[in-house]
Amino acid sequence: SEIPKYICLSDIGLSPIVPSDNYIMSSPTKVMEYLACGIPVVGNREILDMRDIICESKGGILVDFDAESFADGMKALARNNQMKLNMGEDGRKWVINNRSYIEIANKLEKKYYKILSER
């Protein structure tokens, strides 16, 4: 796919998702794509899965859903290259260890075996 090639040209990934009932529980695919490419993310904390992913991965900055907060998050990353690199690396490692298809398949297999062994 062409998408990773273009994502990797970025220094910072943005994921502003409107905190409404329609999106509050959505899974932020864009965040996973950024992290998989080693790009640190600025995302809003009101989206539960995004908040969990960014916190667990240490792959970005959580801000409130408003333009000023997103601008502050972007500036913080743009001004601190080492932090940006560390977050990008941490995010990529987290995706590989927690959300790759192989890792998900392994976890699912373990759950199936556990359920079957309890019968």
TrEMBL record:
Glycosyl transferase family domain location: 27-94
Organism per entry: marine sediment metagenome
UniProt xrefs under InterPro entries: Glyco_trans_1
Molecular function terms, GO-annotated: glycosyltransferase activity
Alphabetical list of SUPFAM superfamilies matching this protein: UDP-Glycosyltransferase/glycogen phosphorylase (SSF53756)
Lineage, top ranks: unclassified sequences, metagenomes, ecological metagenomes
Identification of the protein by name: Glycosyl transferase family 1 domain-containing protein
Pfam families the record matches: Glycos_transf_1 (PF00534)
